[in-house]
Amino acid sequence: MDKFMVVEKGYSITEVNKFVDDVIAQTESMLDKMKKQHKEGVELKKELEHYKKMEHDLRNALIKAEQSGSEIKKQAYEERDVIIEEARKNASRIVNDALLRAEKIEIKAETLERNLRIFKKKLKLVVEQQLAVVEEIEELKLD
């Protein structure tokens, strides 16, 4: 800082006034800068709060998406288990039905075999009786 010029009754009023004006101008300039920085700081703080809220919302959305995904997987596994159980029941029923049919067919086959043996015996008996009749007829003719 330069010293003021000394005049007759003290310092030079013009220089002092000029100095005071410069100090006022610099002070106002610094105040404007501070106000501007404060305003920017407030805006940055608002932006930061906005981004923090967005981050919070995104985290919540991510958590909900993970929960939904887990729930969907759980439901899919449950549905899979139900489908597998139904398939097992159906397969068991189909096998049981097939076994019952096979048993009935086997019983019918045994019955048919037995009836065929009886028929053969009866037919053999009829043929033998007829043969006996033919032999009797031949014996009658010969005499």
Outline of this structure?
With 143 residues, the chain is mainly alpha-helical. The chain is 91% helix and 3% strand. It has one domain.
Can you offer a commentary on this structure?
The chain is an all-alpha fold and 143 residues long. The chain has a two-stranded antiparallel ribbon with strand order 1-2. The radius of gyration is 59 Å and the shape is rod-shaped. The termini are far apart.
What is the CA-based Rg, rounded? 59 Å
DSSP, total strands? 2
Structural class: mainly alpha
**What is the percentage of strand-forming residues?**
under 5%
**With helices defined by DSSP (H or I, 4 residues minimum), what is the helix count?**
1
The main pleated sheet reads as: 2 strands, antiparallel
Number of spatially distinct domains: 1
**How widely separated are the two ends?**
179 Å
Give the topology.
Elements lengths: L5 E2 L2 E2 L1 H130 L1
Antiparallel strand pairs: 1-2
Descriptive keywords:
143 residues; two-stranded antiparallel ribbon; mainly alpha
